Protein 1
Amino acid sequence: MCPEPIPTGVALSRERLLEAYRTMRRIRSFEEKLQELVLAGKMAGFLHLYVGEEAVATGVCMHLDSRDWVTSTHRGHGHCIAKGVGVAGMMAELFGRATGLCKGKGGSMHIADMDHGMLGANGIVGAGIPLATGAALTAKVKRSGGVGVAFFGDGASNQGQFHESLNMAQNWKLPALYVVENNGWGEFTPTGFVVPVADIAERARSYAMNALIADGMDFFDVFEKAAEAIARARRGDGPTLLECKTYRFSGHYVGDTLAYRSKEEAEHWKQRRDPLERFEHRVVEAGLLSSDALRSADGEVAAQIASAVAAAEAAPLPDPTSVTSDVYVNG
Amino acid sequence: MCPEPIPTGVALSRERLLEAYRTMRRIRSFEEKLQELVLAGKMAGFLHLYVGEEAVATGVCMHLDSRDWVTSTHRGHGHCIAKGVGVAGMMAELFGRATGLCKGKGGSMHIADMDHGMLGANGIVGAGIPLATGAALTAKVKRSGGVGVAFFGDGASNQGQFHESLNMAQNWKLPALYVVENNGWGEFTPTGFVVPVADIAERARSYAMNALIADGMDFFDVFEKAAEAIARARRGDGPTLLECKTYRFSGHYVGDTLAYRSKEEAEHWKQRRDPLERFEHRVVEAGLLSSDALRSADGEVAAQIASAVAAAEAAPLPDPTSVTSDVYVNG
Amino acid sequence: MSRLLSTGQAINEALAIAMETDPDVILLGEDLVGGGTREVEGTDEMGGVLGTTKGLEKRFPGRVLDTPISEMGILGTAVGAAATGLRPVAELMFMDFLGVCLDPLLNQAAKLRYMFGGKARVPLTVRTVCGAGMRAAAQHSQSLYWMTAGIPGLKTVIPSNPAEAKGLLLAAIRDDDPVVFCEAKGVLMQRGEVPEGDFTIAIGRANVVRTGADVTLVGFGATVSVALAAADALAKEGTHAEVIDLRSVAPLDEETILSSLEKTGRLVVVDESTPRCSIASDVAALCVDRGFDFLNAPVRRITAPHSPVPFAAILEDAFRPDAARVIAAVREMG
Amino acid sequence: MSRLLSTGQAINEALAIAMETDPDVILLGEDLVGGGTREVEGTDEMGGVLGTTKGLEKRFPGRVLDTPISEMGILGTAVGAAATGLRPVAELMFMDFLGVCLDPLLNQAAKLRYMFGGKARVPLTVRTVCGAGMRAAAQHSQSLYWMTAGIPGLKTVIPSNPAEAKGLLLAAIRDDDPVVFCEAKGVLMQRGEVPEGDFTIAIGRANVVRTGADVTLVGFGATVSVALAAADALAKEGTHAEVIDLRSVAPLDEETILSSLEKTGRLVVVDESTPRCSIASDVAALCVDRGFDFLNAPVRRITAPHSPVPFAAILEDAFRPDAARVIAAVREMG
Ligand SMILES: Cc1ncc(C[n+]2csc(CCOP(=O)(O)OP(=O)(O)O)c2C)c(N)n1
Ligand SMILES: Cc1ncc(C[n+]2csc(CCOP(=O)(O)OP(=O)(O)O)c2C)c(N)n1
Ligand SMILES: [Mg+2]
Ligand SMILES: [Mg+2]
């Protein structure tokens, strides 16, 4: 396979390329570790893994900083990591420890980090979309220069909240970015069964909104399209719907038998489109990063995750009486 | 002003033309009577009048029969009348009498007649849309040949229920028709402030749905476009979004001061686009109906409405103990 | 100094003070300004369907936002804005419309702080109109405060007169938790003395509006006047009722209710909502739990029936709890 | 004849019988079939996230409809279909999702008949999963039956074991009013004896599952087993508890509760929902109203705390009502 060229619009330093790779690898390794822990009975809860979709969160979030907010979904670990949330706090949360990011109260579907502009995973499909719209409204009213970014799935584009939020954002020209991660499936149902248009980006027309489509398995393509959309938002020119075509390598949740999906389909994506492999192939061929540098990044990430697991396992459980705290600000 | 030609696709008998006129006139006169009654303090409740929009309900419902269902909105009297609901039962309902269509329990915003395929006005903007979708589902499952028709406003097209219903209808190729009555306003806010596209019909693209636009002030244009859409639905070829450009001559509700809207705008529509006048002008010029025939229809309608008012005023009030009946089927 | 104002005017005043004193306060909702063509000669803003927000856009340009008819979007956006630094006041035109926008309250505003381990604040206020009495029928007349009161993480308040409306609304806006502020139609139509200037009424504290030793009447929102009317009538028969205005239905001021019950031994709660899973049931359940030792008689709940709200005046009047039913309940207690 | 089935299997059986006996019964919801590519070699249907609807599409082609993730659309469409001649069973995957689809229940299904003066029927069933215990945290664990129970025009039932699930579901589907059928997670995980064939359990009637003269324990859904465990432990101390399984939380079988209370004079209600505006409050309020003369002790409500449902096992376990708390409450009554 010939190496695909890196888009000319993307000029990233060695440092930044390594950062992109490290983020994608961190997501991948984090998720793989979770799968192992759940199957071994060491971790409870419903976990939805982001494996295969790493380029999307990474390509978008590399443009974001402390002014910006992201909202996420049930499949939220990747967005957290890409937005800079630490894996130690995340791991402790998933283990239900007092040291977890949410003191063990949130778990995978509600993991959040207000200090890193991460306004939460969300267990309600579509519910993160208006939250990000609200973050964009704050940015606009306060003239912070920030952007509100909602990540959500193809399935979520069938929710009323999608429709209402995008319409409002366009009316108000909010600095918002709507990233639809079209991974071809909503639970066990293929997207084509429930979305009668080929491109979800088409839906932006209902709001006269700017739309872009990216190859969600290609960090560079996502990075480039997101750059355009975010610059537009920061300039005050309004929101964008960015569709990233992607695929989830694993089941809908850890434990999913995958009986509904053909092995061939999954193998095709894994063998041909793996975003980490594609990234590596291209940066190495282009002489931008060495394999050695990447392998040593892999090692760092692995160590980081191993230590997150060890720390989480050693951390204290929450005090049962804390079940009634944090309901209100005072008490 | 030269008479506009009647579309060649519309070949209606004298009988049917008179029926169309009578329906439009019945709606107009009914609404004007209500306005008079409310302002005179003889009738209570929130009344939203359909004056100016008569051609829409009439042009669509002339294609419907007893297999078909319509759902409506807060502005529902016109849809009732066009679907064949009797004005006597309607008037009694609006007077809150025991003889009303809904025994005085529904009132203007909930007027309904299951015997005439009228599944209710609706006080919740957008809520009639999935109800009509459900009626279309029944028609499909039971192979009744029927169609489910939802009438709703431009404002309702900003509701999540619009989005979710149209998407489902297209996925299932339901025999449904979605008629958006774009009258330029949602309460006191111009449509352009909250709908960023010029044509709401554009929104059909989000679902790869068939879309049509009609001049909602022209009976013939609505009739022709609705014919196409309903034939399509009955053939099993799926739903259509039909946008009718129209205007409400009166306020949002009876009592509205109309301070928010310029008099010139309203006068323009009333003077130039009145659907009854345009209809009359054309059928008379074309020699299809005589002015005399129309004036005698006016007289019949006026008498019918006067007798509906007299009967309603004389009718008994509901028994106060009936407040707790009809909550459940048994009791 | 106080003047006679309508509840709507008191609310307008509270909104202006909140916006004046905190630049983070914004308003959003349908037709809050209205009259989008107000640049057009001869047209004007409307200031909401009831005129409550009139003039605010002119005073605070860019901070009063007209929205599409998209309640889920409005409340969801408001939650996001609240969590990221604004202090939004969202308007839900009628409380019945909770049907189309419950999620931002139920699953977002109420839970973000808890789910995030105490690390978020959602200083959101939702203003909404509830209650029967305007011939607006089943979908524009419900008293659904029991739904929001039952959701942990939310607070729900309901003033019974214009002054309370002003003080409670200012408190709600400044509260760091999400608060649902209910404007009962029966109260919106009232006028009353309203103090000038900036003041708040504490959320979570009931108000004893009339003292008496024979029976406790608990009301809130529009039923406070019903309870007071009953108390007047009962006084003439020599029965002295203590009347409590809950002001806040969540949190519930249990202590004020219990200490009145301790004194009177008898209690009637008047609630204009339907009976099941109601504030009335909670008050009665409190009495038979923590107040058991004080009870000398059954606790009666005077509520609407378990029915939708009917349209016809004669039916709607039969639907609404009135003083006659309260008086009869007290008399029956002997 | 009866066999040991899981609650999910019992539900599957009830759905098959309902579809077999009435061609108007259809099912709709997300992933009810699933595996849209099931024509593809080597793939299969899923039959819902919990496998409850497995096999039904094959048996009743065209009558099990997979939907988009559009709960408002699903329920609204189901209401329209029910009013026009079908008898739909719609699935709401988790009851927490009421947040995004309350309107079709609150303002449509519950009210059409009344608003139309008794001239409509809405024979809709909504199947949904509620309750904590699966480490699914705040947005997938709520017990929101109090919300639907509070809405006039709806019925809400909740079985406590597989056999009840079968009989109540068949009754719900055949009922001409809209019924919300709650599948508590704690019950879904149970197995039990289930009679074969077609049978129904009357909606609105509670079941006395254990008789006793000392105290009444009222439970429903997952709390029936909690009450029974408490009754076992109390029996060892010589306290004989009567245990009532409500089966239906709306309508509420007041007579069965009151006649038990008349006998025992003491009552504890166990409800896994949060406390405010709960079924527990309604039961307590009933006791202090119509049951006042029977009461010998305070009525205790054993519920979850007024908090969202936490994720960590240790917190979720503390959140859920358990037998120990019931036992302690009874002991305290003396
Ligand atoms: C409102 C709501 N409906 C249904 C669900 C159950 N559910 C969780 S994830 C999911 C599929 C989501 O599909 P998509 O949006 O494409 O995201 P993906 O899982 O593919 O990343 C569903 C139906 C939910 N959590 N919330
Ligand atoms: C869910 C909901 N939101 C708000 C309202 C209040 N309301 C009643 S009519 C209306 C305007 C509707 O505009 P449109 O859909 O264009 O219909 P039109 O009145 O122009 O016929 C509004 C906002 C409502 N009834 N329901
Ligand atoms: Mg997907
Ligand atoms: Mg309009």
Protein 2
Amino acid sequence: MSVEQLYQEIILDHYRVKRNAGLRDPYDIEVHHVNPSCGDELSLRVSVADGAISDVSYDAIGCSISQASTSVMSELVIGGTPQHALELYDGFQKMIQGQGKVSLNEETFGDAVAFEGVAQFPARVKCAMLGWAAVRDALLRVQASAKEEL
Amino acid sequence: MSVEQLYQEIILDHYRVKRNAGLRDPYDIEVHHVNPSCGDELSLRVSVADGAISDVSYDAIGCSISQASTSVMSELVIGGTPQHALELYDGFQKMIQGQGKVSLNEETFGDAVAFEGVAQFPARVKCAMLGWAAVRDALLRVQASAKEEL
Amino acid sequence: MTEAYDVEAVRRDFPILARRVGAYPLTYLDSGNTSQKPAQVVDAIADHYLAHNANVARAMHVLGAEATAAFEGARTAVAAFIGASRSEEVVFTKNASEALNLAAHTLSAPLGPGDEIVVSVMEHHSNIVPWQLACQRTGATLRWFDVTEDGRLDLEAADREGLINERTKVVSIAWVSNVLGTINPVSQVAAMAHAVGAVMVVDASQGVPQLPTSVADLGCDLLAFTGHKICGPTGIGVLWGRYDLLDSLPPFLGGGEMIEVVRMTGSTFAPPPYRFEAGTPPIAQAVGLHAAIEYVSAIGMDRIAAHEQELTAYALAEMQKVRGLRILGPTEAVDRGGAISFTLEGVHPHDVMQMLDSRGIAIRGGHHCARPLHDRLGVQSSCRASLYLYTTYAEIDRLVEGLDYTGSFFSGRLATTGGAR
Amino acid sequence: MTEAYDVEAVRRDFPILARRVGAYPLTYLDSGNTSQKPAQVVDAIADHYLAHNANVARAMHVLGAEATAAFEGARTAVAAFIGASRSEEVVFTKNASEALNLAAHTLSAPLGPGDEIVVSVMEHHSNIVPWQLACQRTGATLRWFDVTEDGRLDLEAADREGLINERTKVVSIAWVSNVLGTINPVSQVAAMAHAVGAVMVVDASQGVPQLPTSVADLGCDLLAFTGHKICGPTGIGVLWGRYDLLDSLPPFLGGGEMIEVVRMTGSTFAPPPYRFEAGTPPIAQAVGLHAAIEYVSAIGMDRIAAHEQELTAYALAEMQKVRGLRILGPTEAVDRGGAISFTLEGVHPHDVMQMLDSRGIAIRGGHHCARPLHDRLGVQSSCRASLYLYTTYAEIDRLVEGLDYTGSFFSGRLATTGGAR
Ligand SMILES: Cc1ncc(COP(=O)(O)O)c(C=O)c1O
Ligand SMILES: Cc1ncc(COP(=O)(O)O)c(C=O)c1O
């Protein structure tokens, strides 16, 4: 596994031009996640309206893998249902922890397939998961507070 | 160095029949010393009168080396001056820590020469010193309290 | 056991056992103090240092990844070995003593006057002093189980006195006594502790090396053991804890990678196990412990336990034939580990040790870090022979012969009659 | 230096340095994180386990005496190496972090609200978090030295603010910064501390491995360092302390042989260093540390320091030629150790590390356990190359080449122009 396979052009592209970056209003929940071993930090907001994720906005400091992964994630989940986003999380996590043995369906995962190389670099798994873990956390909190309101 | 040289007949003899054993009155100071690594314990009293050690009495639990050494020590110091006892302490300590390179004057040290073998057994040096360390401590305290009274 | 236990094959893995002491072969009967190490463990450590050494977690280069995989692999292996449900439940410490101090510090943090901590009078100092210090800090009260005349935990007296009650917050006892060999009914005590909502801590320093271990069967919440008694290196111990409990505990030592975010004005802390591992952990030692666990697992902990049980029964029977010898603790090999403490009438343990040592026989003399138990039994100190997977019948015979000789030597019988057994 | 420094001869003692990473030779520039180990150290550990292994202090048989002599011999060697006046001043811990926690726990025991503890913003977490926890426990206040723009301790600001004053009870700073490389004026700060009656603690984790050490010249009262950064094993650290001070401190961890008399109702404690060494100490690790100290001493700490100084000067000069590279801390090799932290514009340290790793070059990326310093310098994280006695000019050249390539790769220059330096 060469490092050039890790740094796919798609990843470098998202890293250089991050999609949906910047914190925006309105939002339902903001979460703050860190990766203590390298100090990566992510503030992420989600907004859910009419059963769909209407926006994901974020402010991130981190490596190319974590930033690009967050960027790709935001494109994949915006517009879908929270349930769909959580399913994507599960699939992505399974792949990234699969040590190269699990691959993603390109139709469903789009640019995220570029991260298959990351699964070969255990030390970078946390980087690739940072944005995904944050959005999952945020969505679960939105759901929990929705339940409480019932 | 064989173990039979360590356990000289003189030592076994003092171990079986301890001289000056038992705590007696009157006394000036009582000290309590322990050897934490093996749990040996010694309560020792000294009584000084007219510039001479009039009595050393003790209650000891311990191995043959520590008990015999205390017994031999008591015989050597009773009747002499505290100063003489402290000099004996220095001489005995020097020998016992000398790893077999230092020997004792038999005239001055009597039965204590039997402990020269102990110097070859570093683990037993503390045992042989227990009674000596206690009597030194007690004598220094007697002197200190005598000074205070001046 | 399907196959006979081949102790000679085991011994070949331990080069030190071929040593001679003067004219005598080494007879190492001090394994309860520390075990010997098979070449497999020593080689694993050397290979780690010479080919894969790097710091863990922080280093993401090739060597760092290898060292991290080795270190975390050891954690996973330890978890499996003691039947833990998650590897995150395994905290590496420097020894069992640090593990017990960690437990005492963190569990006692919320305690105050009126709360009670319960240990037993047969504990090792490492399972007494940390709780005494915790009581000093917090104002809680230390109470303890007594032992019966035959060296078992006195559960009846405890019941009568209401030792474990609604004020009890922590119970911490040894699984296997390092002095008496007694195997304590840990799961029963754990049930008593849990009935009043107390946390159950087990000092398994002598248990894990000798018996198949399942933290679930023991029913405890925290369990401590040490690497050097189970064929592993010095410098490493383990605190296992239920994840939920660990997660609720405050940090112990600070620094390094046990943090989440450090600011000069205050810090937040990592989840378990990292919260409790301040500074560079014992990396090569974890690798060595992993090799040790693989070594004993390959032989089989059940077979090791059976070997020790048989040998202990033999030793107990033979030693009781020595004139003036008194066994402390159970005299039959029932619910009993392979540590046999004893006194020899008229001969101080130091002298027994010395005499045996001159014949190449290594035992321990003193109070074996259990002075309160010696006080309780009314003996100032004792001798202890302790067995392990490499111990042979012939070694027990040499011990007994040496004890006979020692008794004669000091009682003067030898000098008078000239005869040893 | 009388003789040229033969770095190739040194490298032959470190088998791991001959490793290759894919097509590239290993270029290990992460010695500030942990150093590599010479075969001499690994062999000493193996020999101890295979021929002399036993527990210490408690065991009086032949193996016990050998192990005790080896362990105490290591203590004597460490004492001589750092210029301590007595070997009883050397306490063995599991790492520098434990040593600093020991200092923080015991020194803070008598403190309360109104008392102040002073550290610096450039400290490693292990010299911050223990003091934060101590302040939480006691109500004392944590204060700190700032750094100047060029990464030196800001003594002027400290003076202006009255940082060290009659309320100051402890001052604890690093001798050599693990991020900036800065060598701090420890003896000057110690004089400031002593003038107000405060205790001076030095975190010498990066100092002792790199510079000849004299605790007297440093003027400190306590000093901590760690074995694994000075060619020694993991699992061992050292706290040195003035004997009188150590003797006045309460115990830290409880258990094992740190006691004098244990009763269920209360215990008394052994004199230093044993009071602070609960449980079985890192015996084989002390043997390994002893071998490491002999190894570096045979080469000469002055020559090791000179080698590092020359190489650091070269590295600083060459690295500053890399486009977009910014050095954190002193950019000249004056009062400076061999850790060089830097950022590369537009490329996150993780990515720098990964790219260099693919070329066999091992550096560290992140905040190097010094997040407050990174906050202070306004960088989220950084890269760090750190040198040691076995580092060569060729390795620095490979680093610089790798950095050029990395910068180009991520800025897209490479893709556009196809050219690397
Ligand atoms: C300056 C400094 N202090 C303390 C430490 C902690 O050392 P250890 O991780 O061995 O406890 C380190 C190394 O990580 C360091 O560089
Ligand atoms: C029952 C028991 N608990 C605790 C310990 C302490 O283990 P360590 O000295 O490795 O901390 C020991 C061994 O000495 C032991 O036998």
